């Protein structure tokens, strides 16, 4: 009993002292008396009453609405998911999203192959998406007015004309262990940064080289993708019933080395090809098995189809061809030191010329990539990659090649560097990407500045600079296409 | 005499736990209240960044969270962006490790690209806001030394000093931790000269499934005059998120049923 009295005696002054010294202001609706916030604090939410008894310190925060227990309100309003109300005033019906963009660019070299303007387009992208429990649908289409283009007829595979259908697919989560995605879709896998070994899905190099947004580097595929999931590993099987070639540079927009004349392709000397496009006969398969080991991602890849660029030559008809190709590869990616490292390898089985003796068909290749990326300083990221393209059966190729015809390097080494700097609250992104081949003495540098003016408007300026000593190397052939561009985009 | 001493010391012994709970326990409970309520959860978050000139930027995203280890440790986050339009449908995924660097991925829908992101300085801006990554996912409580400065009717006021001062931009921070809910109502960051330059505040609290939850919070950069307000809606706890939500499968095909509910 004596103890108890003592306890209370000691407690009382302590408590009241605390209360006198640093009593925090209490908001309305809470247990204590309402007390004012001090001037340096953020505004109190509605309903919080100010009152500032003298002698109270202003250092402490007022209690926010809902704190200090019993008086708090039990509320749990349901947040809408894809409902766009009050987020922005610029909402289209049916939940359509997208952007409208103007983009203009010019070539900086005097040349006779192409127009001076490299790009001059107005582009509207509209996207529609709808979800159900297990099924979703998405359609994305671009509408383009481009006076620089010579080809105006709509070709949905080549991306020519005033409409470019980017996506039109149905996605279905069929079971716990299986997903389907069928229709026009963009597909990407592999570990490289702008370097692709096991990703044989179509690329749009024309778009990349003339300075369209990086998303256009990937062209869509018409495909059925089936994915299986298990604790052991996951498997993607992609079937493309109609071969989707890259949207490669053929001279119409971007001038390249002309293997037939030894000169350059151009607007008036477009590379002619033997197309492949017989449905279900000229098809493609791509598979990937992947799993994680801890935080390391590993994958095995397989591809069966055709060279994505017209790398074969039909000399009789002066046409380029898409020879048959199978690819087998593997990759691993994960944390290394203070960043992310990746290694990928692929064996290109050029099935029409396995012995490597036919000089007009590409030989087998071994490709290898090693990359590393880390933050160098605050909001500055750097990435380095080394890639190797080794031509197999090189001696046979050399032996059989006609005298004087250009040969690929036995080993093509390419080093890439990426630097990305974020500034001004991440509204300004300065980036630089450089491809450089030390043994082919050529390269390609992509400087770019992207500025977000506000939530809707984005301005961009950049350049595509190709350099090289020789006109028949990968980047050297593109030298005359060096260009600068600007763009302005309104997103909604 | 001996009895007298005993009775003197007793009140101190008895009063201290009530007044001055062990500081590590306070910090642990505050950490729990801020980042670990429920086994998992979801919230729709609206972020408004207002600069000194009053110009506003908005971000709008849905967060799914799951604790993967017991004892307020590792977690996984899935962040699906609705707005602004140029990042719509982008997904940011984090596997937070308390004892190692976080693993981060970004999914860019236009390219169907799953990008692995190098672990960055935790004290850099999260999506261009005044919040740092660390403010959003939680700073490891063992990185600081905590002392209880005072205890008032409503708050434990805790001063936290970094063990490795060269890794952070603050010299210490002061947290006002609400005594019954353990919600940090205000956190003030002080620079090397002892000046306050950054301040986090819980502006609104709601009780959701018996968890007292901050449904509006802010971060103010006192130097730049910029302020970011986060408003949470549709908060739910213990929704039974399966583990595989936080895998590549759901990066590429968002778990709409969990994002929507």
Characterization of this structure:
With 492 residues, chain A is mainly beta. Chain A folds into two domains: 1-72, no CATH class; 95-491, Porin. Chain A has three helices and 20 strands. Chain A has an 18-stranded antiparallel β-barrel. In chain A, strands 10-11 form a two-stranded antiparallel ribbon. In chain A, strand 6 and strand 7 form a beta hairpin. Chain A starts with a helix and ends with a strand. Chain B has a single domain, classed as outer membrane lipoprotein receptor (LolB), chain A (Clam). Chain B is globular and about 50 Å long. Chain B has helices at residues 2-19, 23-35, 133-137, 248-252, 256-260; strands spanning 40-50, 56-67, 75-83, 91-96, 103-108, 113-117, 144-151, 155-162, 172-178, 184-190, 196-208, 211-221, 226-237. The chains are: A mainly beta (492), B alpha+beta (261). At the A-B interface, helix 1, strand 1, strand 4, strand 5 and strand 12 of A face helix 1, strand 1, strand 2, strand 6 and strand 11 of B.
Brief summary of the model shown:
The complex is a heterodimer of chains A (492) and B (261). Chain A is built from three helices and 20 strands.
Oligomer: heterodimer
Write the element-wise H/E pattern of chain B from the N-terminal end onward: HHEEEEEEHEEEEEEEHH
Output the structural class of chain A.
mainly beta
Low-confidence stretches of chain B: 1-18
How many distinct folded domains of chain B? 1
CATH architecture of the largest domain in chain A: Beta Barrel
In CATH terms, the superfamily of chain B is Lipoprotein localisation LolA/LolB/LppX
Order of helices and strands of chain A: HEEEEEHEEEEEEEEEEHEEEEE
Overall helicity of chain B: 10-25%
- What would you call the shape of chain A? globular
The CATH superfamily name of the largest domain in chain A is Porin
> Count of helical segments of chain A?
3
- Gap between N and C termini of chain B, in Å? 68 Å
What's the count of strands of chain A? 20
